[in-house]
Specification:
Shape of chain B: globular
Largest sheet of chain A: 4 strands, antiparallel
Largest interface: A-B, 30 and 32 residues
Largest sheet of chain B: 2 strands, antiparallel
Order of helices and strands of chain B: HHEHHHHHHHHHEHHHHHHHH
Strand content of chain A: 25-35%
CATH superfamily of the largest domain in chain A: Rieske [2Fe-2S] iron-sulphur domain
Mean pLDDT of chain B: 89
CATH superfamily of the largest domain in chain B: Cytochrome Bc1 Complex, Chain C
CATH topology of the largest domain in chain B: Cytochrome Bc1 Complex, Chain C
Number of domains of chain B: 3
Radius of gyration of chain A: 28 Å
CATH class of the largest domain in chain B: Mainly Alpha
Distance between the termini of chain B: 81 Å
Number of helices of chain B: 19
Distance between the termini of chain A: 84 Å
Helix content of chain B: 55-70%
CATH architecture of the largest domain in chain B: Up-down Bundle
Number of domains of chain A: 2
Strand order of the largest sheet of chain A: 2-3-4-9
Strand order of the largest sheet of chain B: 1-2
Strand content of chain B: under 5%
CATH topology of the largest domain in chain A: Rieske Iron-sulfur Protein
Number of strands of chain B: 2
Low-confidence stretches of chain B: none
Number of helices of chain A: 2
Low-confidence stretches of chain A: 1-8
Oligomer: heterodimer
Number of strands of chain A: 11
CATH class of the largest domain in chain A: Mainly Beta
Mean pLDDT of chain A: 83
Structural class of chain A: alpha+beta
Radius of gyration of chain B: 26 Å
Bound molecules: protoporphyrin IX containing FE, FE2/S2 (inorganic) cluster
Shape of chain A: elongated
């Protein structure tokens, strides 16, 4: 029995030696993969509760005048109230390379200081290099209170009326 | 005999001999050769070197200078670790305290800062010297590859270090730099999240960058650098040669003599070690002088709600930043740099059609073709930048196409086609061989990159508009 297995060149199947080589190689590969996966999940970002990323309760609908843009600095976003009363929450990060975009009240535009991208108050791109409109966060209006969930960032290829929330 | 202790009686001599196995002082060349082999620090050298390769204007001492700078960086870096805590609350105030309260704190910071920046320049120049003297030809191809890896590590070390002072400069340069990753298809977003430790530059980013900067990257530099230097020792340095004289059969005795000199070897100690020592001392003096006068910059504390205008990248990324202003980000940040890297890595494995190792710029024609390349790039690159800035608006000309095509594939295709045309013309017009033509093309690319970097540093001001250098500041 042992003689036939260890002879090494049985026409079919593999010898015990070859099998052990393969088994150890597979075990080595599995160990490497496990270590890699462990490392990756070890270094994966940890979500911090509170601050940016949580739900912001901004108070009564009526405290935001029509046609206003209010920066919510802790939440990294602007609450836009349109002339028609609709709400939009726009992430302040430029979609080009991530600079913080300030609101320019004279021009009525968001103008990025880094490479001069410009956006309308809806987030629509007026001037490249920004490749898409400003990202937005979902708004819920509960009993006349405005709530914005900064945990869910919505990317969009174009602006649409359905982005706007009406009281 | 086994039971008897063979060591001498005198205790001082016993201590000395337990440390160094060689008889000091060294009296003859044989003992010097042996000493270089046995000494921990000196043994990174071969024990003999070719006399010709000692010529300073061959290597310009650039590889050794890189080692010196790395040593200074490790020393000053460890000192900085004792006065700096990497959290958003403490990082910036630690920098202020370092500069105002710690004895020589500002000097140590300056030395670390300037050595790091100088290292980028030195490693780049070292790459150029190796390229133009043919030091990358077989059998040294793989050492070139290791070198490219080291270059990336050096830039990575600078970039991760850039964030640590946690000032406006740091915060926004890293925001812009890591946003570039987002344009990598598929893995870009998750990779950026992993590096940032979240969705924006934050305390988690600082922790990550600190770990990379003080542990991971230095360790990789140590391993890759040791490998690199070991290979230099094994393959020995390429030997400099002069341009072959116009073929003149009667001058044979002179050539024979020259060839003899080529092959002559001398002991590393003292011939190489003394040059290195003097050079290191001079550089160190100049560096300390510079660092005593010129302070490393520190701007206002980081403010995640206000980007400064303009928010520029670190200076060694200015070439990349300039590309970004002209190409779709996917091309400026990913495709073009990736092509450049592949080109660098593949180059030494191409077929070489002339015997020119050790000859600056390969041949007389090679030198002329290098000039042609340099002048072409000096003229054409600024013209293209101006053209794209003021005249041409490709996306507006082709509104129906997505900007990945109109501002990506089309201009890239144009650039690649022009480069290919340049290569073909150099070969056809000047009868250059492949080596000379390729070198000329390499010069075009390097000079263009330098021109773009200079434009980014000196000609881009508020809103990234083109302006004259005195308006930028
Ligand atoms: C931290 C970075 C680096 C260090 C410390 C380093 C160190 C050295 C040293 C000490 C030498 C001996 C000769 C000399 O001083 O020129 C050398 C040679 C060499 N280096 Fe580097 N180097 C680095 C980066 C690079 C880079 C970026 C490249 C190219 C991509 C490169 C490619 C080479 C090659 C091919 C040689 C052999 C050249 C010859 O024999 O003529 N190295 N390096
Ligand atoms: S980051 Fe806003 S335009 Fe580039």
């Amino acid at each position: 029995m042992t003689q036939t297995v260890s002879s090494g060149d049985t026409p079919k199947g593999m010898s015990r030696r070859e099998f052990l080589h393969l088994a150890w190689a597979v075990a080595g590969g599995a160990a490497a993969l496990t270590t890699g996966a462990l490392g990756l999940s070890f270094f994966a970002p940890r979500i911090v509760e509170g601050k940016f990323g949580s739900v912001f309760d901004l108070g009564a609908v009526d405290s935001f005048p029509l046609g206003s843009v209010t920066p919510i600095t802790n939440g990294r976003f602007y609450l836009v109230r349109q002339q028609d009363g609709g709400f939009l929450a726009l992430y302040h990060k430029c979609t080009h390379l991530g600079c913080a975009v300030p609101w320019n009240p004279e021009k009525g535009q968001f103008i990025c200081p880094c490479h001069a991208s410009a956006f309308e108050s809806t987030g629509q791109v007026i001037n490249p290099p920004a490749p898409r409109p400003l990202d937005r966060f979902p708004i819920t209006l509960v009993e006349g209170q405005v709530k914005v969930d900064t945990g869910i960032r919505i990317e969009r290829d174009r602006t649409s009326i359905s982005d706007v929330v009406y009281p | 005999m086994t039971g008897i202790d063979p060591r001498p009686e005198a205790i001082t001599q016993r201590v000395v001999e337990s440390i160094s196995r060689d008889d000091l002082p060294l009296v003859d060349d044989r003992s010097r050769l042996r000493y270089v082999m046995n000494n921990l620090i000196l043994h990174i050298h071969p024990s003999k070197v070719s006399k010709a390769s000692l010529k300073f204007t061959y290597t310009w001492g650039l590889g050794g200078l890189a080692i010196l700078l790395l040593t200074i960086l490790v020393g000053t870096g460890i000192m900085l670790m004792f006065v700096y805590t990497p959290t958003p609350e403490t990082a910036y105030t630690d920098m202020l305290r370092l500069q105002t309260e710690v004895n020589f704190g500002q000097l140590v910071r300056n030395l670390h800062h300037w050595s790091g920046n100088l290292l980028v320049i030195v490693v780049f120049l070292h790459l150029l010297r190796v390229f133009f003297t043919g030091g990358l030809r077989p059998p040294r191809e793989f050492n070139w590859v290791l070198g490219v890896f080291l270059l990336l590590l050096v830039v990575g070390a600078n970039f991760t270090g850039y964030l640590l002072p946690w000032d406006q400069l740091a915060y926004w340069a890293v925001t812009v730099g890591t946003s570039l990753l987002g344009y990598l298809p598929l893995i870009g977003e998750p990779l950026a999240r992993l590096i940032l430790g979240g969705s924006e530059v934050s305390g988690a980013t600082l922790t990550n960058f600190y770990g990379l900067h003080v542990a991971i990257i230095p360790m990789l530099v140590f391993f890759a650098g040791s490998f690199h230097i070991w290979r230099v020792r094994k393959d020995s340095l390429s030997v400099p040669r002069n341009l072959p004289k116009r073929s003149d059969p009667t001058a044979s005795s002179a050539t024979v003599k020259a060839e003899k000199e080529q092959q002559e070897k001398v002991p590393t100690l003292p011939h190489l070690v003394s040059i290195e020592f003097v050079f290191a001392l001079v550089v160190l003096a100049l560096l300390v002088l510079w660092a005593s006068w010129v302070n490393a910059p520190l701007e206002a504390a980081a403010d995640p709600n206000h980007s400064p205008n303009p928010a520029k990248a670190a200076w060694y990324f200015m070439g990349l930043q300039e590309l970004l202003l002209h190409f779709h980000p996917m091309f400026g940040a990913i495709v073009i740099p990736a092509l450049a890297m592949v080109g660098l890595l593949v180059f030494p494995y191409l077929h070489f059609d002339s015997d020119s190792e050790g000859i600056w710029f390969r041949s007389l024609k090679g030198r002329r073709m290098a000039w042609v390349g340099a002048v072409t790039a000096l003229v054409v690159t600024p013209l293209l930048v101006l053209l794209d800035e003021y005249v041409l608006d490709l996306p507006a000309l082709m509104p129906s196409l997505p900007s990945v095509i109109s501002n990506g594939w089309i201009p890239l295709g144009f650039v690649l086609l022009s480069l290919w045309l340049f290569y073909v013309l150099i070969k056809a017009l000047f009868r250059a061989n492949r080596d000379e033509a390729r070198q000329s093309l390499f010069v075009v690319l390097v000079v263009s990159f330098v021109v773009l970097t200079v434009i980014g540093i000196a000609f881009r001001g508020e809103g990234m508009m083109l302006m004259l250098p005195w308006e930028v500041l």
